[in-house]
Amino acid sequence: MGRGLDEAETKAREIADEWVAEGQRWAAIPGASLAMFQVDHQMMERMADAFEVKRAPASPFWHAYGLAWARCSLDATFGLNAWVLPWVSPDLRAEVLKRTTERACESTIANLRSKSPLN
Hints:
mainly alpha; 4 helices
């Protein structure tokens, strides 16, 4: 593993921390999952730049689009459960959405690391 790749991963992990923090701002707002679309898109682009990976022009868009719909389906599920099962708390919903962002960060880092020309 080369120094350049280590530095790129360090930078990507800093971006991931920002990504999760930004997601937490939106996680408490029901129905705001699509608001994260732009954030997802920007963070994926920044990670690709850190790893010096040239991606297809639409690749970050489709990745962010899929993630937005995953969040929307989780949001809808929690909305229904909160209506049917009132003990489902907003804190639990926010935690699930946070974990979704963390998983997206990890998969993005692993994917870009495997494609990086750095060594």
